Amino acid sequence: MSARPHERIAAALRSAAAQGTPALVAFLTAGYPSRERFGADLAAIASEADVVEIGIPFTDPMADGVTIQRSSREALRQGVTLSWILAELKALAPQPTPLVLMGYLNPLLAYGYTRLASDAAAAGVCGFIVPDLPLDESAPLRAALDVQGLALIQMVTPVTTPERMARLCEASSGFVYAVTMTGTTGKGAAVPTEIGAYLRRVHDLAKVPVCAGFGIRSPAQVEQLRGQVEGVIVGTALVEVLERGESPQAWLAALRPASP
User: Fold this and answer.
1) How far apart are CA 35 and CA 246, in angstroms?
2) Which residues are within 8 A (CB) of 42 and not within 5 positions of it... i.e. 6 or more apart?
3) Domain 5-250, what fold?
């Protein structure tokens, strides 16, 4: 019996982490820098990453910093929509690397949850991250995704209360997204030295792998997180690599520390 989509995410992360280095969850904004390059950019990134996170462009990406805001605005200008993304992914399916869609709630609501889950599954998507969907209001989307075996990945932060962190970790499938700092993505600050205690708390509560994200852009940061999480999420720095026309495979390969 084949694994359900949400199980593919967790399996890919655990398999990579078993080699002694954190798995790489690599983010790109769909259709940026150009719609025409989306398929090629996705293939290039998927060839080196363990999971690919695809951003759905939105007018007000409140959790994202200026780079991803800029990429989202330009993708929208080029006519990138949720329908277009799903059609493109369906044409490119099947993908050996698990795909996760990251998007804000309004476009998902407008699309319709049942249709969204069905079309996403047909396009090879394995799960969703929805930063502006509170856990307490997530039951309708979760129910639709569950029918197709898709993950609804939850985010926790260093200031999440213990009770709420327990609920978020219990509800998360695919992986738990452990934000390493408060604020928006892309700051590029050093990973806080006290982060180990926080990540241990998340690990103690999580039933699925834990991935750390926000501001991760250097091999030193990935090395710092080795042994503390199953995966690291890289977004802003990779979007900048694509903007510069550089090789995403080479950049991701350089980010991954050597096996112990």
Assistant:
1) 17
2) 28, 52, 54, 92, 95
3) TIM Barrel (3.20.20)
The yes-or-no answer on residue 146 being catalytic is no
Sign of the C-alpha dihedral, residues 56, 61, 66, 70? positive
Task: Provide the whole-model pTM.
Answer: 0.93
Residue type, 251: W
Active-site residue identified among 53, 88, 119, 230 = 53
Element (H, E) at 79: none
CA distance 32 to 25: 18
Joined together, the tokens standing for residue 88 give 């493109």
* Residue 64 is among the residues annotated as catalytic for this protein: yes
- Would you kindly state where each structural domain of the chain is located, as residue ranges? 5-250
Residue 153: in which H helix or E strand, if any?
A: strand 151-156
pLDDT in tens, 135-166: 999 999 999 999 999 999 999 999 999 999 99
CA dist 209 to 178, 200, 252, Å? 10, 12, 20
| Catalytic option among 64, 88, 119, 230 | 64
Tokens representing residue 187 in the block: 């700051």
H and E: helices and strands count for the chain: 12, 8
